[in-house]
Amino acid sequence: MSPPSAFERWLEPADGRAVPLPPALAKVYGPLRLPSRRGRPLVLSNFASTLDGIVALDLKGHAGGADISGFNPHDRWLMGLLRSVADYVMVGAGTLRSVPRHLWTGDHIFPPARKDYRALRKALGKPPQPVNVVVTASGAVDLSLPVFASGKVRAIVLTTSAGARHLRSEGVPPTVQIIPAGAGRRLRAGSLLEALPRPPTDPILLLEGGPHLLGDFLTEGLVDELFLTLAPQIAGRDPTTARLGLVEGRAFAPGHPLWGELRGLSRAGDHLFLRYRFAAPGRGPRKMD
Ligand SMILES: NC(=O)c1ccc[n+]([C@@H]2O[C@H](COP(=O)([O-])OP(=O)(O)OC[C@H]3O[C@@H](n4cnc5c(N)ncnc54)[C@H](OP(=O)(O)O)[C@@H]3O)[C@@H](O)[C@H]2O)c1
């Protein structure tokens, strides 16, 4: 797999700080600017969706984003780029269970750009890989999976006190930190952010799913920007297939609608790459211009 061709950029934010992309990455993407955020990590999220809003085809064998994007190289390259600017890449336990051998690093998702991703992290003063963060209320995650046991990444499990007790009784690998972040079956997104150790400057968290965890962050107004790959397929639904949409477990419209501001728009072939900014869910419909 070679580096993908350049994205066609139609709209990009003019504000925010410029990320010092190495020439090989800038040649594919052009400039990348990210907003600044004080007091808590900047939260970016990245998903791939079909035209009909589906992000996982089913829960047996075809559950991941790759089936949604059609293994699209631009989608994978961009995911690698976003992982490479992040201090933390966070997923819920459901996402880990769907791709148990995955590592949430640029190297893993798009190996041909490994050298350039690493050069970017070095220029940003970040360690070679982002910390992989898994969220689980139950603590029912397998600590022998590569994300915990391979030693290739540092990992944090954010869980409940009961989940932490359970995991510690299983034997925790040396690269893994178990951090209790509350109680109950659903930890608050704000508590998850507060529980993370702070890197020295301007921390960035990349939230890669899944739809339940994204719903919790959106509910608390804690997603600063969503990078959404729109794949040119219609997956459909019927009563025999359980298919997840971008958000599950939370409903916003019409009572608390969540409108986004389009910040970026790029194209590669028939795929669209969107960037939306979100505030907290509101009370009424947004006025049309
Ligand atoms: N197309 C894409 O871009 C994309 C991106 C990501 C995921 N996906 C797909 O989405 C599917 C998984 O969806 P999902 O909604 O089940 O994933 P998920 O949000 O990753 O996982 C749900 C589980 O994560 C834990 N969790 C989530 N939010 C929590 C919170 N606030 N507090 C405590 N624990 C929390 C819970 O684990 P416990 O049950 O252990 O308590 C919960 O059962 C997979 O098929 C995956 O491939 C697609």
Give a brief rundown of this model:
The chain is an alpha/beta fold. The chain has ten helices and 14 strands. The model has no long low-confidence stretch (mean pLDDT 93).
Characterization of the model:
- The protein has 289 residues and is of the alpha/beta class.
- The protein has a single domain (8-29, 47-250), classed as Dihydrofolate Reductase, subunit A (3-Layer(aba) Sandwich), CATH 3.40.430.10.
- Helices cover 26% and strands 24% of the residues.
- The chain has 10 helices and 14 strands.
- The strands form 3 sheets. Strands 1-13-14-11-4-10-6-7-8-9 form a 10-stranded mixed sheet, with helices on both faces.
- α7 links the parallel β7 (131-135) and β8.
- α3 (73-85) packs parallel to α6 (114-123).
- The chain is globular, with a radius of gyration of 18 Å.
- The termini are far apart.
- The model has no long low-confidence stretch (mean pLDDT 93).
- NADP nicotinamide-adenine-dinucleotide phosphate (NAP) is lined by residues 47-48, 55-56, 63-65, 68, 91-95, 98, 135-138, 140, 186-187, 208-213, 216, 244, 248.
